[in-house]
Amino acid sequence: MRVLPRVVIAAANGRSGKTTVTLGLIAALKGLGYEVQPFKKGPDYIDPGWLSLAAGRPCRNLDLFWMDGRQVRESVARHGADIAVIEGAMGLFDGVDVRGSASTAEVARALDAPVILVVDATRMTRSAAALVRGFAAFDPGVRVAGVIMNRVGGPRHQRLLRQAVEEYAGLPV
Prior knowledge:
Elements: E1 6-11, H1 18-31, E2 36-41, H2 47-55, E3 60-62, H3 69-78, E4 83-87, H4 104-111, E5 115-120, H5 126-138, E6 144-150, H6 155-169
Parallel strand pairs: 1-4, 1-5, 2-3, 2-4, 5-6
């Protein structure tokens, strides 16, 4: 089975801006000449429509409630492109039960995919580092590779967020 470069876009919670960030990433990659295959974690019909438009090819759903890890990996391999961009649902570790079954984290683990964590930075600076550090350490099988700060108030806010997350959580912003 072909291993496709892939990345999961996730967040601490819903309404953090995952879809907007995912659309921007897909558009940027397409602008660089890459063929992007979009995926959406879980049953959803609105976001996949937007992701399909951005990528110029149909978005596919990945759902560990209905699929096992092998089927998720096969789906990503079957719908090959230059890169797969997978948008998560809800918060990274939120699933159908307290163990996080069928969560975005489980999809990332099944695909051995790095996670980019989208953080709504409204009204926080250093606290963002604590949140990111907690997410990065929560499950050793999930690799949080970087952070995108959303809803940043301005250059000073951006500088403080970047410094805090990079210093205290050890992750690039």
